[in-house]
TrEMBL record:
It comes from Streptomyces chromofuscus. Gene3D superfamilies: 3.30.9.20, Aldolase class I, FAD/NAD(P)-binding domain. Residues 139-327 form the FAD-binding domain. This is Bifunctional salicylyl-CoA 5-hydroxylase/oxidoreductase. One of its GO terms (molecular function) is NADPH dehydrogenase activity. It holds the Pfam family Oxidored_FMN. Residues 740-763 are annotated as: Disordered. Residues 391-724 form the NADH:flavin oxidoreductase/NADH oxidase N-terminal domain. InterPro entries: Aldolase_TIM (IPR013785), FAD-bd (IPR002938), FAD/NAD-bd_sf (IPR036188), OxRdtase_FMN_N (IPR001155), YqjM-like (IPR044152). CDD domains: OYE_YqiM_FMN (cd02932).
Amino acid sequence: MPTSGARPSRIAIIGGGPGGLYAAALLKRLDPSRDITLWERNAPDDTFGFGVVLSDETLGGIEHADPAVYEALQQHFVRWDDIDIVHRGERHTSGGHGFAALGRKRLLEILHDRCRDLGVDLRFRTGAPPPATLATSHDLVIAADGVHSTTRETYADTFRPHLTTHRCRYIWLAVDFPFDAFRFEIAETEHGVMQLHGYPYAPDASTVIVEMREEVWHAAGFDELGEQESIERCAKIFADALGGHPLQSNNSAWTTFRTVVNDRWSHGNVVLLGDAAHTAHFSIGSGTKLAVEDALALAACLQERPTLGEALTAYEQERKPVVASTQRAARASLEWFENLASHLGQRPRQFAFNLLTRSRRVTHDNLRLRDARFTEAVEHEFGCPPGTPPMFTPFRLRGLTLRNRVVVSPMDMYSAVDGVPGDFHLVHLGARALGGAGLVMTEMVCVSPEGRITPGCAGLYTGKQAEAWRRITDFVHRQAPGTGIGVQLGHSGRKGSTRLMWEGMDEPLDDGNWPLVAASPLPYKPGSQTPRELSRAQLTDIREQFTAAALRAARAGFDLLELHCAHGYLLSGFLSPLTNRRTDAYGGSLARRLRFPLEVFDAVRAVWPEERPMTVRVSATDWAEGGTTPEEAVAIARAFAAHGADAIDVSTGQVVAEERPEFGRSYQTPYADRIRHEAGVPVIAVGAISSWDDVNSLILAGRTDLCALGRPHLYDPHWTLHAAAEQGYDGPGVVWPAPYRAGSRPPRTGRTDAPKPRLTLGR
């Protein structure tokens, strides 16, 4: 009968991949009395794939937990430092990366031997009993049964899996010589773009993965070819990379990658491990790494916790954030390759930098440490003067030249009285202008009293408000010369008449409400006020409110005007199919949904001074089913650019209350990247960009032209000045105000070191 507690004595493991085998070895080593049985339906030497890459971090964990396995692995590793990127006949090499790989078959043999030495019962060519049966007869069931996990499907109601199939086809192959680097090669064929990922895993062999978009795969006829014909075609396409060598297969088949995410990882005494619990795209080489790390964490939690339930909870709490971070990086990487065609126009060296930093795990600063020569060459090609980080290169929009690429993002302060900005706004915006940013943006400034979000929102619908804004722009131009100040004009639409943010965000006012209008009569969320659908006459009135506000903004001295067409406010409400249900000329197709926002843009552009730029903020996705698609976001950007927008400020979401954003570092920047390359318009990236290293990376990779940061500027008004100081930069891209120059170096702190002993006296 099963025992209780976190030290289970009878353990069943379903699946004989690296994760399941390593878990068996660890648990048996920790307690030799355990009865551990592992079922694997395939033969011991069956494996699909060729090489496995492990990081130094993972190897360190293995070395600490099981030196015998580590020593066996060390004898078979192939190590290298370089990455080669071949694009349009040019090869660029970046060094200092540090990889270790070995054959997957060899890895399995090492783990088989270790399990047998320890007394684990390995049952090959044998399907495991049903999970429910094993859960009754064993203390613990570890489901390491892969991406197509039967266990996960058996308990789907508990695990709640989310499976996402992606847009590329790939095939896992090998070649009989070792690449001298991790190689990425791009082939532009008559059918579309294809890519090769290759790396050595033995003194005489390399893994080769060929990948392409589904439509390219079909166009090239791979869907009609057998295995041998496919690999011969791939060998011909990438003959230069392969040196004429034939490709080898191992029951290789074209497949599409599936991202697996589970809400929960355990059900009673059944727990998921490795690909059964999660997957991460092969382009960051982490599948085996994650499975091995799962095994290490699970064994440690079972050793440390008093009960099995607590151990499994601790295991999930420890691993989930790590896996989520890796999956975000993997998602960024796979989407970069899915959209590879949009980057092909970049110069080869910048293209190589873009590829290397695609997952956001490798950054500009990190790459500079690994390979300063390569990074400096990319900077020189980009146009960075010597010693100038990319973020401190200037950027021009019409008649406005920004001294650097940092934007203080629009942030609602909810501190105006009757729409009039006061001393708080002067200090808030003035401080950030003194803080060194190239452009400081106001919060959304409302075009009418009814267009406010809250009673504390600022406006530009009266002369008094314009005079108050003039006081602020004069301060910025006088005290922070070289810093631009922009105004964001908007109308709240159905998201108006709510409380101040800290009193209940998006919650209706207790009293003093004003009527709301929107594209369609849809409340923002349950309990919200239902807006009236705008009539044609009201649309004209609102358009005129925007133009009147723009005229006041011009007289108030703003350098740039941004039209707010994002976040579910009025103009955004016309763009999204989730919020625009109109049946007239302003609803239905995207062209019709664009009609009113473009009418407003044209009217504002007509009265805004010709030499001053205009930008448009959009929500590139609604993060909800049936909402704006990335393709539509590109089309929206193209439309505004065709009407004279100088840049698109690319945000996401906040359009519908039921959204499910995929939060993470720089999580919105891929949308800006896509719009920049496909619509051919400058972009401002925004969304959890929190470090100067991120800004440098995004700018130098060509994924954005400007970076807007909000919360970092709330934490530190002088964020840009401090970024310059931390990078040792002192040039025209950022200027310390004269009264602050004494603080341009970090202040000294008390000494924390102690005098070292001069003598060591024996006893």
